[in-house]
Design goal:
Helix content: 25-40%
Number of helices: 5
Number of strands: 7
Radius of gyration: 20 Å
Shape: globular
Mean pLDDT: 87
CATH superfamily: PknH-like extracellular domain
CATH topology: Protein Transport Mog1p, Chain A
Oligomer: single chain
Largest sheet: 7 strands, antiparallel
Strand order of the largest sheet: 1-2-3-7-6-5-4
């Protein structure tokens, strides 16, 4: 009899741990979607990584942001523009597509105002809609290296209840094409 109780207790204990592990693994993160190996394929190696896997938001229970930045080895995470290689991904996981659409629309307005500011660190910035990338997307392109004239790119997007921003470059290759390639990969992994 005690052996049977012991087996039931083990089953309950391990069953709960397996369920908790599966639930934890089911919630995607930015670095889980674009692994270090993936980042190296897109922008080259070696890379350093900085991750904020799941940052809870005030948008509701279970909502969170996830940030993953890969930068050329020895690069400065606080000042990424000079880096030869970068892949920076921020994802917002929200409860509704309406909530993420509102954040997207606010981003369009905020970035539009920011690039007009005389204090803007980027020059010759443009914002353009980008068709074929999720439900909606826009690209912000600007000269970030005054010496070479290199243009960096940020694409802001959303698909369903997930949205975010992606910047990727492998100088001197086109940042726009590199970022689009990475975004296609990300979108293929989103629900």
């Amino acid at each position: 009899m005690s052996r049977r109780i012991w087996l039931i207790a083990l089953f309950v204990l391990f069953g709960h741990q397996i369920q908790s592990y599966a639930e934890e693994q089911a919630e995607p993160t930015a670095c889980g979607i674009v692994s270090a190996a993936d980042a190296e394929k897109f922008v080259g190696a070696p890379l350093d990584v900085k991750e904020f896997a799941k940052l809870p938001t005030a948008n509701g229970p279970g909502t969170y942001n996830s940030i993953c930045t890969y930068i050329a080895k020895g690069g400065d995470f606080a000042d990424a523009f000079p880096a030869a290689r970068l892949l920076d991904l921020t994802l917002h996981f929200l409860d509704t597509s309406e909530a993420i659409a509102a954040i997207y629309e606010n981003s369009v307005a905020q970035y539009g105002e920011a690039i007009k500011s005389p204090e803007s660190p980027v020059k010759n910035a443009t914002i353009s809609p980008l068709a074929g990338f999720g439900d909606k997307a826009f690209v912000l392109e600007a000269v970030t290296d005054k010496t070479t004239g290199y243009k960096s790119v940020l694409i802001v997007f959303y698909k369903g209840r997930v949205g975010g921003s992606i910047a990727a470059w492998k100088k001197p290759d086109s940042a726009l094409e590199t970022t689009k390639t990475v975004l296609k990969f990300i979108l293929s992994k989103l629900p």
